[in-house]
Amino acid sequence: EGERARVRREMIGNVFQDPQLLEELTVRENVELPSRFRGVRGDEARRRAERALAGVGVLQLADRWIPELSGGEAQRVALARALSTGGRLLLADEPTASLDRVMASQVADVLMEAASRENVALMIATHDPAVAERCGHVVDLAMRAG
Asked: In terms of pTM, does the model score above 0.85?
């Protein structure tokens, strides 16, 4: 079980429908968490967080508190946190479900661009056809009557 946990911790990033950010921490501190859990300290954890935040276009929010963010901003911060570990697989569970159409499109763009730029495999679970049509390969798991 220890090896599986290590692989999950080091190789897989997760983005959820609800960003799952800690309100008592700043944006930067939230993004630093995965690195700190892996033993990365000080300036290196900060550098990784800032690189990830810049990569998803929200570095300017680094010192803000989570309750001050819009839904789209919070989802971008969650994506930065998932990418900050340097893992090779990003699992995104309904990452645009709680956003309006315009913000969902922007977050989907950022998600796809960041995964491509970081050379990360991306697996998305979505009910949004606009998100699904952007994917290179789609598996439809919808239950069908019959």
From this structure: yes
Phi and psi torsions of 121, nearest 5°: -70, 140
Whether the CB-CB separation of 49 and 31 falls below 8 Å is answered with yes
15 contacts 95 by C-beta, under 8 angstroms: yes
Distance set, CA 13 to CA 24, 100, 127, 133 (Å): 22, 24, 21, 22
CA gap 78, 95 in Å, rounded: 10
The domain defined by 2-132 folds into: Rossmann fold (3.40.50)
User: Distance between CA 91 and CA 30 in Å, rounded?
Assistant: 18
Q: How confident is the model at residue 125 (pLDDT cuts 50, 70, 90)?
A: very high
Torsion angle in degrees (nearest 10) through CA of 99, 35, 62, 47: -130
pLDDT of 88-124, one tens digit each? 999 999 999 888 899 889 889 988 998 898 899 999 9
The dihedral formed by the CA atoms of 45, 46, 51 and 57, expressed in degrees to the nearest 10: 130
